[in-house]
Design a protein that fits this description.
Helices cover 11% and strands 36% of the residues. By secondary structure, it is mostly beta strands. A nine-stranded mixed beta sheet has the order 4-11-1-2-3-10-9-6-5, covered by helices on one side. A two-stranded antiparallel ribbon has the order 7-8. A hairpin with a 2-residue loop joins strand 7 and strand 8.
């Protein structure tokens, strides 16, 4: 079982959207509309712009059990992505997670699910996975 986030990065003034896929061992895929970064900060190279750019591409882990976060823009359940921080010669990104995209559209680098029904479904599926004894899932972030 794994998660994969993909989004086409490009120069745009409007918010770009991608896909967060939950892939089960039997190849069943649940696809969620998601974004990462702020409008105007979703082009190649922006992954290392703190507070504005999308999550850097790479391989991560995500817990199946979230915690509550009061931070504006999240204000709800938060699945904390590790490693934290993410460090490269291009910069440092920290405190990234998967959450509902609350308030102003876009994120400060997290993966934000766009629609509320999808978010509730994602949380319910993650709770069922946690109840089965699985503590975390691999998360692959790719920009085609």
């Amino acid at each position: 079982m794994q998660l994969t986030f993909t989004m086409d990065l490009s120069v745009a003034s409007e918010l770009l959207y991608g896909s967060l896929k939950l892939i089960y061992p039997d190849k069943k895929i649940i696809d969620y509309l998601a974004t990462s970064g702020c409008a105007g900060w979703q082009q190649p190279g922006d992954e290392w712009v703190r507070g504005k750019g999308p999550i850097p591409g790479g391989d991560y882990q995500i817990p199946t059990d979230p915690y509550w976060l009061e931070t504006r823009g999240v204000e709800g359940l938060f699945f904390h992505i590790t490693p934290d921080p993410v460090v490269s010669e291009k910069g440092i990104r920290a405190e990234l997670g998967i959450h509902f995209d609350a308030n102003v559209p876009g994120t400060a680098g997290c993966i934000g699910l766009i629609n509320e029904d999808g978010w509730r479904g994602f949380c319910d599926r993650m709770a069922a996975i946690a109840d089965s004894g699985i503590k975390s899932l691999p998360l692959k972030v790719r920009y085609p």
